Amino acid sequence: MASIPELEEIRRNQILEAALSTIAETGAAHVTMDDIAQAAGLSKGGLIHYYRSKNELFQATFKELFERIFELSRESMAQHSDPMEKILAFDFLYDLENPYTRQGYPLLFDSMALAAREPDYQAMFDAWVDRWIELLTGAIRQGIADGSFVEMDPDPLARTISAIYHGIAIRWYLAPRSHSSEWAVNSFRTAIGGAMAPYRKKTGQDAEKGQGTGNTLMEMNRNPAA
Amino acid sequence: MASIPELEEIRRNQILEAALSTIAETGAAHVTMDDIAQAAGLSKGGLIHYYRSKNELFQATFKELFERIFELSRESMAQHSDPMEKILAFDFLYDLENPYTRQGYPLLFDSMALAAREPDYQAMFDAWVDRWIELLTGAIRQGIADGSFVEMDPDPLARTISAIYHGIAIRWYLAPRSHSSEWAVNSFRTAIGGAMAPYRKKTGQDAEKGQGTGNTLMEMNRNPAA
Amino acid sequence: MASIPELEEIRRNQILEAALSTIAETGAAHVTMDDIAQAAGLSKGGLIHYYRSKNELFQATFKELFERIFELSRESMAQHSDPMEKILAFDFLYDLENPYTRQGYPLLFDSMALAAREPDYQAMFDAWVDRWIELLTGAIRQGIADGSFVEMDPDPLARTISAIYHGIAIRWYLAPRSHSSEWAVNSFRTAIGGAMAPYRKKTGQDAEKGQGTGNTLMEMNRNPAA
Amino acid sequence: MASIPELEEIRRNQILEAALSTIAETGAAHVTMDDIAQAAGLSKGGLIHYYRSKNELFQATFKELFERIFELSRESMAQHSDPMEKILAFDFLYDLENPYTRQGYPLLFDSMALAAREPDYQAMFDAWVDRWIELLTGAIRQGIADGSFVEMDPDPLARTISAIYHGIAIRWYLAPRSHSSEWAVNSFRTAIGGAMAPYRKKTGQDAEKGQGTGNTLMEMNRNPAA
DNA sequence: AATGAATGAGCCTTCATTCAT
DNA sequence: AATGAATGAAGGCTCATTCAT
Question: Coil, strand, or helix at residue B201?
Fold first, then answer.
């Protein structure tokens, strides 16, 4: 019975995976236990064996969601060493080829609708934001340490940056007719570049280039295309 | 029977009002036709008389929601004549004393969760964004015309600005433990100030003040308090 | 809409009737809402319209049961004017031709199993007993007043008498193989006669007859038949 | 493997013990196989290994119940040598300090609800009554033999006596608010004393005392306290 | 116009039973 | 012998929708 200690773990992952994808597809408001069970390759009863109620399963699922989003962010930032690059390392947000991204959006919308009314979900959302802020303040502190940013309290800035990401990503996902991925990428580079500007030390190069924040939107705007 | 057309109008408003408040309270996922009927002072049958199905009523309700939010934005901007002031005229977003604001957030979260999956709601959301963008591009064009902003395509900038509002407002509402109203107000002034910077013509005064965008966060960050 | 005020009353009676007969048949432990709805000629939803939960319906049903049993007892006693006859007026208990009797037994067993564990049902049972005791104390008081019984506190005696009825009825119903109706009738006349004996004033006639309590069991026993 | 037959015995007792206590607590209507398995310190599968179905286990459990009640009665009577004392030897019925008594009542109520509808349980109930009757007829026969009772068929009298016990015990257990243990004890002494009266030979002593049946209720009634 | 009685599909959850290990 | 994972039927309850009045 070597497999039994692992079985619980395997099944729970199987179920969370199924829950994430069915909720993403159908919506937390409409998904049924049957949908999830079927997606997990289990019977309704089998599902209940691992998560005793829909609420318990939902909470675990959204906890998992936030865990995964956090992991994705952490890994994205870890691929860069320059602090400003770390801060701008969220291009994956605008890549629907990435199945995690594609699935993540609808789940995130559900999580916010839940968090807007239920304290448990609000707490999860809050905790996730906190962890994200920690990543960003880490990068900012590194920038202060290496002299590329001025001295400051990194926390409010990190909150602003992450909120900007949040806003642009949502807008981009919900209004694809009018918001291209390019708009999204440029947009947050503009906005974050702007938000960061006062805190960045001007180098000779940057001073010449003006913003030096990768703000391609400026150029785009000055040479309107569409 | 001159009163019948009026009655229809009255009843429909009564119902939409009830739908808005009950959905805000209970959530689109859980609200029932009974809840809404009761809030409207009607019976279930009376409700169905005016909106033949829950879906029809929901669509009308969210249409009304976007209409109201738009009206609120339009009025807020109309109170200012300076283009930059118009762009920054959204302080009402961080005022939960305002019942419209308080009710608006949960409804907006529901609308996004719906829009993330159902084309009808996505179209509504998109259309609302478009009208908001129009307001902002109007202000930007005015700024270009009166010489306070440089020449540019106002549309992408307007989209960025509105997305920033969106992101900060959401973050502020969902994580009240860590995001004060002051953070929110300062945050969007910083971010929008930053995003606008490249497009604003430096006046003598502004040049002296540096950003001149009402960026109180900068000062806050440099003199960390908590 | 003249019928609407009465409809609620009609339906509730219809449902209670259905509940009484289906519970009697199937048992409180196994009867389903569907069973009851069907017996009442309604759909499941229609049933719930009148009784919002199974528990609510069950409580109403057992309340009705005790009401009916009480009414039956009251009427039986009312047919007699002599106090001793009133006390002995429960022959209907041993008449399964009577549909109320036939239905009443299984319901009463369920009510006791419920009362043994759930305070609400215990309270109902208790209240029913109290009302029965009142009937009996009334008869005893009448007997004291008209001089056929000696002075005493009628309450404990009434409780004993009703308990005897209870015991004999139960035994008779559950072990029909060995307890004939005649045994039951004789048995309670014996037992109650015995219990009453000390409190009855001996008349000349009675003194000669010995017991004078209608104790036919004695004769039966002395001339064993089966 | 001499121990295997013993293990079977041990496990079955373990299970019956668990079934008796969980059913007593939770009620036959609501107890689950899991409850019983857990109380027995076994898994669901382990339970099924010994009793192939819930029905099989229930039947065995109630058989065990009647066996135990009978044993208790037998032992109580065996402690007395005088026939009248044997007949009155059921004081343990009113002693909730006794765990068997405390557990026995709810189980007995369940057994009656079952017996009222299912022949198997009715047969068990009937058989239990028969064995009880045998105990009582034995005592009565002894009384006839030693000259303290008159000649008679002891069977109907025994049935009456046991039914009286049954009725008073039930009433006492279900309506504790109004029936004290003293009432119960006095009550069955009164009732049984009354029922026995015609069959007892008057001794000089008894003749003087009147009933001589331990009828303390009579005195209580004549000197009402509350 | 408006009511609310009635329906019935659908959902979450429970639980006896089966079965691989 | 014993476990507990898994099944699936069944039940209580919800709720959008219909319809007679």
Answer: coil
CA angle D101, D106, D107 (to 5 degrees): 85
- Three-state secondary-structure class, residue D200: strand
Cβ atoms < 10 Å from Cβ of D10: 11
pLDDT in tens, A93-149: 888 888 889 999 999 999 999 999 999 999 999 999 999 999 999 999 999 999 999
Question: Domains of chain A: which residue ranges?
Answer: 1-52, 54-222
In this structure, whether the domain defined by A54-222 belongs to CATH 1.10.357.10 is answered with yes
- Residue A149's DSSP bridge partners are A200
In DSSP notation, C76-126 reads HHHT--SHHHHHT--GGGG-TTSHHHHHHHHHHHHHHHHHTT-HHHHHHHH
Tokens describing residue A153: 């309290």
Substitution target from D23, D171, D182, D201 for chain C, most C beta carbons within 10 A: D171
Q: How far is CA D103 from CA C185, D26, D61, D106, D110, in A?
A: 32, 11, 13, 6, 12
Considering only residues 9-38 of chain C, list those whose CB is below 7 Å from strand F: 31-34
* CATH fold match for the domains B1-52 and B53-222: no
CA pair distance A27, A107, nearest whole angstrom: 8
- Total residue length of chain B: 226
**DSSP string for C212-226:** -S--HHHHHHHS---
The whole-angstrom distance between residue B200's C-alpha and the CA centroid of its chain comes to: 25
Contacts of A214 (CB under 8 A, 6+ apart): A88, A189, A193
pLDDT digits (tens, 9 = 90+) for D130-183: 999 999 999 999 999 999 999 999 999 999 999 999 999 999 999 877 788 888
Domain A1-52 sits in which CATH superfamily? Homeodomain-like (1.10.10.60)
From chain C residues 196-225, the ones with a CB under 8 A of any chain D CB are: 196-199, 210-211, 215, 217-218, 220-222, 224
* Token pair of B139 as six digits: 């202000």
CA gap B105, B72 in Å, rounded = 14
Secondary-structure class of domain B53-222 per CATH: mainly alpha
Please state, in angstroms and rounded to a whole number, the distance separating the CA atoms of residues A71 and A27.
23
The answer to whether the beta carbons of residues D190 and D196 sit under 8 Å apart is no
Joined together, the tokens standing for residue A192 give 């974050």
- Any atom of strand F under 7 A from CB of D46? yes
- In this prediction the pTM is 0.90
Name the least confident of B64-73, B127-136, B164-173, D207-216. D207-216
